[in-house]
Design brief:
The complex is a heterodimer. By secondary structure, chain A is α/β, with parallel strands linked by helices. Chain A has nine helices and 15 strands. Chain A has helices at residues 13-17, 34-42, 63-73, 84-97, 198-208, 216-222, 252-255, 275-278, 287-301, and strands spanning 3-7, 26-31, 47-51, 77-80, 101-111, 114-121, 126-131, 136-140, 155-157, 166-172, 184-188, 211-214, 242-246, 263-268, 281-284. By secondary structure, chain B is of the alpha/beta class. The chains are: A alpha/beta, B alpha/beta.
Amino acid sequence: MDSWVFITADGWSGALEAPRALGGRVVAVVVGPRELAEGVAAAGPDEVRWVEPKPGVPPEAFSLPLADVVAAAAPAVLVAGADPAARALLGAAAAALEVPLLPGAVGLAVEDGHLRVRRALAGGQTIETCAPGGGVAVIYAGEDAPAATRPEATIEVLGLTCSPLAIGASEPVGQASGLSDAERVVSFGRGVRAREDVAIVQALADACGAELACSMPIADDLGWLDKSRYVGRSGNHIAPALYLAVGIAGAPQHLEGVRGARIVAAINNDPDARIFQSADYGIVGDLYEVVPALVAEIDKLDK
Amino acid sequence: MRAVVVYKWSRNAADALVRADGSIDWRNAKMSPGEDDPAALAAALRLIRGGDDELVGLTIGDGDASWALARGVASTWSVEDLPALADNGSTAAVLAAAVRRIGGVDVVVIGDSRQEPGVAAAVAGRLAWSVVLGAQTVEAVDGRLHVTRRVADVRQTVVVPTPAVIGIAAESDLDRAPGMKELLAARKRPVNRIGLADLGVTAGDVQTLGCRRPETAPARVFAGDPAQSAAQFVSALRAEGVL
């Protein structure tokens, strides 16, 4: 049962490893710079097929030509991670093969000769087992995989004519706040009721030796912190050892910015707040009582 | 420019009930506007500059189709007998058939949903159109689409020929509630109600063999006396080596 894995950006290890459980050949289709293809090849898939976009050409420009290649090879399983460009390639390939496309896949297996897909539902509260009944395309949403020790794959160059998509302009997103390499980040949201109360959260950040950050509305709508300090889909994407969210409900757009955090902790007065579904640790309580108590507790550590 | 905005095309997973054994009850999870639908609609409305420009809505399921009509869309189509499906490819095949049925469409704007991240891509695949996902804005310039999106720490503008599918990823979850005047106006706007048979498609789905609870430990949440909770919390973070 052969699998093709579409890769356009870093963060591919889990998607590449998942189809190993099926026992067939794993072919990585890389659309991106040479360093990306070399990194994938070093992880030891059976083959790497590499498309190098010319400067100014986005990976999506190859979605339709690649779909023709996939249709000719007809692999049983197609895999991509969450990266938008990789999903664009997967969508075209799945349509070409007319196979089901299942999101949220956390595992693939063969049971009694039949393909099975395990996928996370309801925010990861349950794992569903699906029987696609033939080939399938999946969007992998499981854990990253540890580095494999397999022979390095050779890289075969795929020469394809691309669709006329072009990158017209690129500009860096402001990241001068020091959040990107902070070991600890304390962040707050609309649970903080007034601008002068930001000092309460700042005191917690100081006690933790953390950078102070916020959710998008705090910077964008209220202007209580500079826009360079908000975390989320359109703001900072950070990977601290500790991300402590104070009075933040946990909208998916916000959580997308802290996917790389090792430990997510949260303080919220609503026990059903979405942030607790993604947090490792939490306190249910009024932040105006809990935060000073935390500062006092952390101060004890220094004495 | 003729644009289609796809809205209210999936169930809200937050309304699903997960039982202790991991089985899931979707009965209370109706088709509802997705978290990216307001941003997709806002982006689609900005594409329409008057003249011959037209924005058409497209939704699925038998619920209220007026969400987009009350927010500036002049007419909409509803595929009424398409249920919520696990298979994003099957959902996309029906949406693509509906786009063909609407006809003369230059661009499809749809929320790039985190919950159903395969649909926008598969709609493009089924139509064999260009696609950009994870987009923030889309603008028509000289017959092409200028699509902005963020890639790592870079904001990028991608120039895309039409026809194309643009998947919009919301930057925040704020929706603008329509006023009474807009709600009343929406009732007078046309809804073209069609079924799978009208489109000549079927909507198969994958077989589900069952659900179970994940093995990962749930969050450790402390509650009660603030001082005691703070002490337990700090102790736990110290044990993790992050404080």
